[in-house]
Amino acid sequence: MTCKIIFSDIDGTFLTPEQTVSDKTKACLARHADIPFILVSGRMPTSIRTIQRETGLRAPLIAYSGALAWDENGAVLYDKAMTLATAVSLREKIRSGFPEIVSYTFSNDDWITDVDDGTAALYLEKETTAKRPLVGQPEQVLKPSDPVHKILCAGEPALIDALENSLKPEFPQCTIFKSQARYLEIMARAASKSAAAAALCDLYGIGRGDVVAFGDNFNDVDLLQFAGTGVAMGNAPDAVKAAADLVAPSNAEDGLAVVLDSLLQGK
């Protein structure tokens, strides 16, 4: 096989279970620094950029599970957002039918919350984004022409399941999926990790056969299937492993570094 570009999910894949980048992974990246290594995540750009700086990566990034891609300098390379009007309709539905659910709105590199009240979900999101939110309603904070790249809903698993089932029939223009049992993510239908990866491959002039991708969850499946070599982590669900070409050791066992070194031996 040949490898001319690498795409990797972050949580559960690139990071250890302790949410750190292992020394083994950093050394692996240094050995293969001539190959573009693109982090692909549901996180916002600031959060991904923080991880890039820690690991010495200078490359484009894909945020919001494929809704937005930036180059190394923060210029937009790819943008598939929902309109503010759609986002407002979604949030009205969530507030009226599921008042216990907390929802956050993301636009470019900003995230918006109704109240900054120190709830556990809000604290977790701050830790993930490394950036404080804007407080207010999206329709008050954003301009009508501003894009909305993601709405993140947090709540008890049973409520999240019910919310997902309620929203999908009413908003066919959106992609709606659980990233964890307590988290529901909503984006424009056109946004996906594979579509953003394809756009960057076109930019680099690289074919799918020369792509290696790593992931651990259901929202990575389209990326793994797009890549010439899709690698599921050992900690991934069985259905995700079945969609991949290879299965790596878990993220607790430096699976990404182990497989990447093996694939690129003798390069």
Explain the overall architecture.
Helix 2 packs parallel to helix 11 (255-263). The model has no long low-confidence stretch (mean pLDDT 93). Helix 10 (238-242) links the parallel strand 13 and strand 14. This protein is an alpha/beta fold. The chain is built from 11 helices and 14 strands.
SSE layout:
Layout: E1 5-9, H1 10-14, H2 23-31, E2 37-40, H3 45-55, E3 61-63, E4 68-70, E5 76-79, H4 84-97, E6 102-107, E7 110-113, H5 120-129, E8 134-135, H6 138-141, E9 150-154, H7 157-170, E10 174-180, E11 183-188, H8 193-204, E12 211-215, H9 221-226, E13 229-232, H10 238-242, E14 246-247, H11 255-263
Parallel strand pairs: 1-2, 1-12, 2-3, 7-8, 12-13, 13-14
Antiparallel strand pairs: 3-4, 4-5, 6-7, 6-9, 9-11, 10-11
Give a short overview:
With 267 residues, the chain is of the alpha/beta class. Helix content is 37%, strand content 22%. It is globular, with a radius of gyration of 18 Å.
Order of helices and strands: EHHEHEEEHEEHEHEHEEHEHEHEH
Number of helices: 11
CATH topology grouping of the largest domain = Rossmann fold
Number of domains: 2
| Largest sheet properties | 8 strands, mixed
Q: Report the portion of residues in β strands.
A: 15-25%
Strand order of the largest sheet: 5-4-3-2-1-12-13-14
Shape estimate:
globular
Mean pLDDT: 93
- Cα distance spanning the termini: 10 Å
Please estimate the helix content.
25-40%
Structural class: alpha/beta
CATH top level class name of the largest domain: Alpha Beta
Pick out the low-confidence regions.
none
**Number of DSSP E strands:** 14
CATH architecture of the largest domain: 3-Layer(aba) Sandwich
CATH superfamily of the largest domain: HAD superfamily/HAD-like
Rg, nearest Å:
18 Å
